[in-house]
Amino acid sequence: MIFLTKRNDNGVAVIDGIDSTANVLSLIHPAFAGLTIITFVIKQIINYVCTDDIVKRINKIEKQLNNKKINIEEFKEKITNLTEHNMYVVRNNLSNILLNCIPDTVDIYISIWIDLITNDTNSANEDLCEILSDLNKNDLLLLEMIKTFMKYGEKRYYISSEMTKRNRVEERKKENEEIREYNSKTKGIKKLDFRFSDRDIRIGNKTIFWKDFSKFYNVNVGEMGYMILDKGINENGEKTMNWAYYVRSFIKLDRLGVLQLDYHSTLGTVNALNIERFHITLFGEKLLEYIPLKRKNTYDMI
Length: 302
Fold this sequence. Notes:
Elements: E1 5-7, E2 13-15, H1 17-27, H2 30-33, H3 36-45, H4 51-67, H5 72-80, H6 84-100, H7 103-118, H8 124-132, H9 137-152, H10 156-185, E3 207-209, H11 210-216, E4 232-233, E5 239-240, H12 242-255, E6 259-263, E7 275-280, H13 282-288
Antiparallel strand pairs: 1-2, 3-7, 4-5, 6-7
């Protein structure tokens, strides 16, 4: 067979047309080469990416299947038996993995994609694929930082504020008992008891206070929103906007349903980035299962 080659914008040799697809199929596992979905996606993207990159990413899929101890023939059967809806979801995400996914997230994307196919009850993975396709390098780093904090971080403010809340509840309870006793003995104007309570959502380790998180990463900023408005100073005395990217990631992860942000209600203007705490949602909890756990000193903070 004769392969007609050309050079792309990066000077990499790529192979045209049908011959190019055949070349890719000859370089991957035969079980993959025999899958219609694989052939279809390769034909779709072959003119937009070099064959080496396609083969490299398909080999990554094979490697992860081996790591998960999933037989390729069984995997092939799972794909063959997908419903029409799931077939479209799997095919579209395979196209993203081979063509659009950035190198920083490709391994995580592949792992979620495999579980989408192999776990019949894992319907959340369709949403996780959608979420992950929207993430960039800084979003991934923030998720790693959150997972690191959940493992190693100290929740001093969380604990102290919880004790304050309990004391306040006990004080209100005592005051209400005194009010009810007073009202039972008077025929005049009655006193009103306290019938309101502050919104104070805490979900164990899934709730993180900004004061705890920022202290853990040595960020001396009381209000998160400032970090996207002005540069900070790193340990070398140099100006940096590193943290501005993470603030942007907080906004994005909230929009994607990975995090839920709770902010202070203040007099004057109210800033939605004056975050008091944030919660890991059900989707965030599931996504963090695929995020690698690293030590704190991995991150270069301001």
